[in-house]
Structure formats: C-alpha cells, structure tokens
Design brief:
seven-stranded mixed beta sheet, about 30% strand, 16 strands
Length: about 300
C-alpha cells in the first residue's frame, strides 16, 4: 500500500523530493509551505513559493499557515490522517503536536552529515569551513534542532572550486532519491534508525549580511572558501570605485592563485588579488543591478589597474 504523505517544504531545493514521492506512487494528501511573500520586479507582488507552484501543478491541496499555534491548524493537520510527514527546507520549527501528528512521525531531508552542521545554512557553512565532503541525510524528527535519529545517508564530495549553488543542486537531486528510498523502506517496515553521535556537533548559523564582505587579510584558502560558500546568494563582495563613487561588486567564482603583495591589492590584469598568504583570482563577478560576467568581460567595461586596493 502507498503511504499517505503530508509534504512540507518551501524553496526550489524541496521540489524534486515532492515530485519523486508523487512519481513513486505515494498519496501526497497535502502540501504545507510558507505563505506567499512580496516579490517580483518591484517587490510588491505576492509570490508563491516554488513548492506551492509545484504542488498546484500536481493537483495537491496547499496550506500556508504562518505557524501552528492555532488549534484549528493543528486539527486540520491531524485530520488528513496521514501515515507520515516529509519535511525538506520548510522554514518553520514544528511543535510536538505536528511532530506526533501522523501515524509514523515526521522525516526530514537535511543537507549535511549530521551531527555536523545542524541548523539553517548547512550547505554554505560546509564550503566556508573548507569541508571536503558533505551529504544528505534522512532523519526522524524530534523536538531538538536536527537531533533525531538518522535513517539513510548519501555522501557528496565537495570539489576545490565548487560553489554553494553547485553543491545545492547536487544535494537537491541526491536528497530526492534518498527520501524516495527511505519512504519505500518505511512502507515495508524496513527503515533503520541510528542515534546521532554526541561528538562532532557543529551548528550552521544563518548567514548574516555582516559577514558577506570579503576580507582579503585572511589566507587565500579562507578567502576562496568564503567566496564560493556565498555564491550565488547572498554573494560575497568587495567595494570598488566606479565612475568616481564606491560600488559593491559581488564575486560569484574564484580560484586560488600564486602571488604576493599588499593585502587586497590587484596583482595582474586577471584580477588576482593578494591575501594574507597567497592570492585568489576572481573569475566571475556581478555589479549591482548588472548580470553575472566572467572576469575578462568585467574588465573590458570596468578597468581595474594593477595596484588597485579592493
């Protein structure tokens, strides 16, 4: 028998898992997602989340409560009489009434190798820390933050120049397959659960705007990790004088390079920048309000002489 599933998710990262569960033949009885938010070109139009849009295309009822404090919202969840809830990047902490509101509980697709990188920004933090490997885990949720027992794991290598966006896409697809496999095992009463280790707990704090500026006074490896960990969003940036006034320029890709010089100075005509030790070459940039472009194209429109301090 197919499982009766409540799916809970919001961003694009969650969509492949929703589709995989539907394609596997499960009965997705409802989708919960964050309410529409202001967006569009002027920031005024209400925009449905990617999961909301996908659910409507699949003909699945969509619910968008602000939280689950109201008794009516909790009762509505319970009244779906679901076997299990599947949660992927939903964006709300779930109260115990929801965690225990289905026959088999709630299972979360989390983008790290728990207990490392519990919390809000595991993909970015893994790259910023220079991790060589991360992965997707399916865990059974409990009251603590990402503390529940782990069911299945899929590992992913982090290449030296991989950005958070590239890792996001790899984990998104890996996670969909993993959750599909987990639900098949749960359906057959064959899903293992392993308690997380007590050692090695690291929290992935939400990215703060204050930490997005590039600090070239750090070693080149740290600077490179910082850039790729924040690419493409929110984007690490430096300030450059353009047209007589300082402007922010995002760096969307970089690579480590050879070179020495005054920290933050441009060393050559390929945007190689001196760091505290070593250097980084900025390979993809974006001016405010502009399109991403390769360094050579950027320099054609915005010359940056050797010796310029960023």
């Amino acid at each position: 028998m197919a499982l009766r599933i409540i799916f809970m998710g919001t961003p694009e990262f969650s969509v492949p898992t929703l589709r995989a569960l539907k394609e596997a033949g499960h009965n997705v009885v409802a989708v919960y997602t964050q309410p529409p938010r202001p967006g569009g070109r002027r920031g005024l139009d209400l925009q449905k989340s990617p999961v909301h849009q996908a659910a409507e295309l699949l003909g699945i009822p969509v619910l968008t409560p602000m939280n689950f404090k109201a008794d009516d919202d909790r009762k509505q969840f319970s009244d779906f009489d679901a076997d299990v809830a599947v949660v992927v990047a939903y964006g709300l902490l779930l109260p115990e009434a929801i965690l225990n509101g289905t026959r088999l509980g709630c299972y979360n697709g989390h983008a790290s190798l728990l207990p490392r990188w519990r919390g809000a920004a595991p993909i970015q933090r893994a790259i910023m820390a220079g991790d060589a490997e991360t992965g997707m885990m399916v865990m059974k949720m409990e009251k603590g933050l990402d503390t529940g027992p782990v069911a299945l794991t899929a590992r992913v290598s982090i290449d030296e120049n991989m950005t958070a966006g590239e890792l996001h896409d790899a984990l998104m697809l890996k996670g969909a397959r993993l959750m599909r496999d987990a639900m098949a095992k749960l359906e057959n009463d064959d899903l293992p659960l392993t308690v997380q280790a007590e050692e090695g707990v690291v929290y992935a704090a939400k990215i703060d705007k204050a930490e997005t500026r590039i600090d070239f006074s750090r070693p080149s490896q740290d600077v490179h990790n910082h850039i790729r960990g924040l690419a493409p969003f929110p984007g690490a940036w430096f300030e450059l004088e353009i047209g007589g006034k300082p402007e922010r320029v995002k760096v969307l890709a970089s690579e480590r390079a050879e070179g020495m010089g005054e920290v933050g100075s441009v060393l050559d005509d390929q945007l190689t920048i001196a760091c505290a030790s070593g250097a980084v070459r900025l390979t993809k940039l974006q001016k405010a309000g502009g399109k991403p472009m390769l360094a050579a194209d950027f320099l054609r429109g915005t010359p940056v002489p050797v010796g310029t301090r960023l």
